[in-house]
Amino acid sequence: RSLGIGAAIAVIRDCMPQWPPHLRWHGVMEAIAIDSRAGFALLESLVRNDPDLGVRDQAAQLRDTLLARHPELGDGV
After folding, report:
1. CA-CA distance, 20 to 49, in Å (whole number)?
2. What are phi and psi of 70, to 5 degrees?
3. How far is CA 73 from CA 2, 28, 50, 67, 69, in A?
4. Residues 6+ apart with CB under 8 A from 46
5. pLDDT bucket at 77, cuts 50 / 70 / 90
């Protein structure tokens, strides 16, 4: 988080493909905490593209929960 919003999101986005599943998940959680819209876009990426079925399922559940509580997050997706 000390990198600043844009730089932190970019590091998470760019490094996620090399990270193991649990770090990809935690990276997206950090991204959501830093910038909800940018983090939500990374969450959508996990839902669609993550190679780990468990991560995809967990991401889909969180996406659905977030959209139910904050439908405006889906506006930019």
Report:
1. 14
2. -135, 75
3. 24, 15, 20, 6, 9
4. 24, 25, 28, 55, 56, 59
5. low
Share of the chain above pLDDT 90, in %: 83
pLDDT digits (tens, 9 = 90+) for 27-59: 999 999 999 999 999 999 999 999 999 999 999
Q: Are 48 and 77 in contact (CB under 8 A)?
A: no
Residue whose pair of structure tokens reads 């399922």 in the numeric block: 57
The span from the CA of 44 to the CA of 60, in Å, is 8
The CA distance from 26 to 64, in Å, is: 18
Q: What is the 3-state secondary structure (H, E, C) of the chain?
A: CCCCHHHHHHHHHHHHHHCCHHHHHHHHHHHHHHCHHHHHHHHHHHHHHCCCHHHHHHHHHHHHHHHHHCHHHHHHC
